[in-house]
Recover the amino acids of this structure.
């Protein structure tokens, strides 16, 4: 037997899980993780999951974490690109789980790019 | 957290295209890759675009894969799920767009013009998981009713919303609830009519398959409003997937304490049972339906007394259709004004149609009332395949009528359809092109009603039989003009004297085709010709001078009716010809014609 509070708790928990199914809209922030063979070999999968978990933990409903193929710079993998509407695309390289969490906190939530992991080609 | 959700359509249409196997193949391959913690595979209800089934949608990208085969699963998993590359050759292509471009699901012409209320969750949630329904505001309307609204306030909201019965009659739902509430009596019942019997209609089935909890929630709300503690869903046994999902949903709701005693810790009780119908069309009529639930022979009785006063087991009973109920939770949550802002003056909200016949996008569509038939057919439906010309649309199934091309631009609502001699019905919409013979269509529906007449009253039992005989006489070229006149008189006699809705509406297909396509009847009766080339008895096959004497037709003819020498024109012997049309199909020079 569930109470009304139980139902509301289920609703909150499930909404996070189902956020993935809302699809893309123009106002979404997109985090695209390179998931080609090179990326996966370099450890892109845990990075992708770290992005997802951190975004869910902070209840960031307008953030969509998706995958892409090879970005062409395989030696910098795992890579991710952050698309914020109206801003320039930021490319992050050589990520790990810790980095993914930091990007969510610093870049997505607080708006400051994590320069430690940005792409810097001379 | 799951990074991808793979939604496989589990509606009856896609299930007949092997979607269950596709679903299992996805699960196996995802497990083989060790991704079961990251990727969720679920089976949903109908997406609506049945013509493109089996359908698979992968989120968060929203990639809409069409006509997926079991063999394609490997490619989708390896490319899309593992490497993030969308498999573009399997994607749905918008046929009506200027160039065949790939778009997000909601931007396609098929979905863009729709407005989904009753089908809100169909194709988005796992119907076998109550938590997913709860995530999308499920059972919030019930909580609102229990916490904030008195039963009378609930009924007032439904009344103000302007919701009318979606099963066909279009009776104001709020009034029906009020009558049941006002009827004296301790014991009352709430019933759901899910006995969807019209040929070509599958709206209610799709709601049951895709969003069964919406029905449970709505019936529980209805129980609270009218003062009933027991509900029955009368559903056809021919809908096995719908029945199974509803059973699962009822079990889950009971586990969560959303059905049974002291729902959600309140003082309210409501329980729900499923009753299976055995597919008699007449059991969709309310009094016959209730007789069937009681275990009696499914036959109608005269009204009054109406079910709201004396219904199931002699007690006051509220009886609504599945789609009507599916609107209720959202009306409670979003308010009467929100609902009545959609639609026309006297028909509010949206209506679900099962689009079929000569149409590109066969499927399930939901549109605001007042949308024109042209929008439904040309934009959402993607037009008529093969560049053929639109002739008529049939609405309301065997009780409805045909809408000819000149009414393509009238807004669809209850009153407009009745005015032009058709009716909303439960929502079957069959599109016909120039190759359809209207007399033959009327005959098809009469064959159906004649077969399904329960036989209790004479005008319907004998009347439909005699009416069908007139139509057979016409299509075989043996009728004269007097027959046409007598037939029309018989139609009105059946309408005026039958006991229930089945007989009262059975002549509608004949009357409406007589009204708009009298010339076709005349052609059958006077010229002994079928203009569309459908009625076999009035047809003859000929070979024209285009014939090159290739002998193919003579070889293929099953009765040896074609003779001729090689490289010379062949002839068909009309005495032997059985008009099967094989010669026409195989001829490479278009030399065979029928007229």
């Amino acid at each position: 037997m569930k109470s009304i509070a139980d139902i509301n708790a289920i609703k909150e928990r499930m909404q996070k899980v189902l956020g993935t199914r809302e699809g893309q809209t123009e106002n979404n922030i997109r985090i695209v993780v390179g998931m080609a063979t090179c990326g996966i070999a370099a450890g892109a999968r845990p990075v992708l999951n770290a992005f997802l978990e951190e975004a869910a933990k902070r209840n960031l409903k307008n953030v969509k974490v998706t995958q892409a193929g090879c970005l062409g710079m395989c030696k910098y993998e795992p890579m991710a690109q952050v698309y914020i509407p109206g801003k320039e695309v930021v490319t992050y390289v050589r990520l790990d789980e810790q980095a993914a969490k930091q990007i969510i906190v610093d870049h997505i939530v607080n708006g400051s790019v994590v320069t430690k992991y940005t792409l810097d080609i001379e | 957290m799951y990074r991808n959700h793979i939604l496989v359509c589990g509606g009856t249409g896609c299930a007949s295209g092997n979607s269950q196997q596709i679903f299992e193949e996805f699960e196996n391959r995802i497990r083989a890759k060790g991704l079961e913690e990251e990727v969720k595979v679920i089976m949903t209800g109908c997406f609506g675009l049945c013509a493109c089934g089996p359908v698979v949608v992968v989120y968060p990208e929203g990639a809409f894969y069409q006509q997926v085969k079991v063999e394609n699963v490997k490619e989708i998993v390896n490319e899309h799920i593992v490497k993030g590359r969308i498999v573009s050759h399997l994607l749905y292509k918008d046929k009506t767009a200027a160039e065949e471009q790939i778009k997000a699901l909601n931007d396609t012409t098929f979905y863009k013009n729709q407005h989904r209320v009753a089908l809100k969750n169909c194709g988005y949630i796992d119907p076998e998981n109550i938590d997913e329904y709860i995530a999308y505001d499920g059972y919030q309307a019930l909580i609102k009713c229990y916490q904030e609204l008195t039963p009378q306030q609930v009924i007032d909201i439904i009344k103000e919303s302007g919701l009318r019965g979606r099963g066909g009659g279009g009776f104001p739902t709020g009034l029906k609830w009020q009558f049941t509430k006002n009827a004296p009596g301790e014991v009352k019942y709430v019933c759901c009519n899910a006995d969807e019997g019209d040929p070509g209609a599958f709206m209610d089935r799709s709601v049951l398959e895709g969003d069964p909890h919406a029905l449970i929630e709505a019936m529980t709300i209805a129980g609270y409003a009218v003062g009933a503690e027991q509900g029955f869903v009368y559903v056809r046994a021919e809908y096995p997937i719908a029945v199974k999902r509803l059973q699962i949903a009822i079990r889950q709701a009971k586990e969560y304490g959303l059905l049974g005693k002291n729902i959600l810790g309140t003082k309210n009780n409501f329980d729900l049972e499923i009753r299976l119908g055995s597919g008699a069309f007449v059991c969709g009529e309310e009094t016959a339906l209730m007789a069937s639930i009681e275990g009696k022979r499914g036959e109608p009785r005269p009204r009054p007394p109406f079910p709201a006063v004396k219904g199931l087991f002699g007690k006051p009973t509220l009886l609504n259709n599945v789609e009507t109920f599916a609107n209720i939770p959202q009306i409670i949550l979003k308010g009467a004004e929100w609902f009545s802002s959609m639609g026309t003056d006297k028909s509010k909200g949206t209506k679900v149609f099962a689009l079929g016949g000569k149409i590109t996008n066969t499927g399930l569509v939901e549109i605001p009332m007042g949308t024109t038939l042209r929008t439904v057919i040309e934009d959402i439906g993607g037009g008529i395949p093969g560049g053929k010309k639109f002739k008529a649309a049939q609405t309301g199934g065997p009780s409805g009528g045909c809408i000819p091309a000149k009414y393509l631009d009238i807004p669809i609502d209850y009153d407009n359809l009745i005015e032009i001699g058709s009716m909303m019905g439960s929502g079957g919409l069959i599109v016909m092109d120039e190759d359809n013979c209207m007399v033959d269509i009327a005959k098809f529906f009469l064959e159906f009603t004649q077969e399904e007449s329960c036989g209790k009253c004479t005008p319907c039992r004998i009347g439909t039989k005699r009416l069908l005989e007139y139509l057979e006489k016409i299509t075989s070229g043996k009728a004269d003009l007097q027959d046409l006149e007598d037939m029309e008189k018989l139609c009105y006699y059946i309408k005026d004297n039958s006991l229930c809705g089945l007989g009262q509406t059975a002549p509608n297909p004949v009357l409406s085709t007589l009204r708009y396509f009298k010339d076709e009847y005349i052609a059958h009766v006077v010229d002994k010709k079928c203009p569309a080339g459908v009625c076999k008895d009035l047809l003859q096959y000929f070979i024209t001078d285009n014939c090159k004497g290739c002998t193919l037709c003579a070889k293929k003819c099953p009765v040896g009716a074609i003779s001729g020498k090689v490289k010379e024109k062949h002839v068909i012997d009309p005495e032997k010809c059985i008009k099967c049309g094989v010669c026409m199909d195989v001829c490479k020079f278009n030399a065979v014609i029928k007229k």
Summary: Helices of chain A lie at 4-18, 37-42, 44-57, 97-109. The two ends of chain A are 64 Å apart (CA to CA).
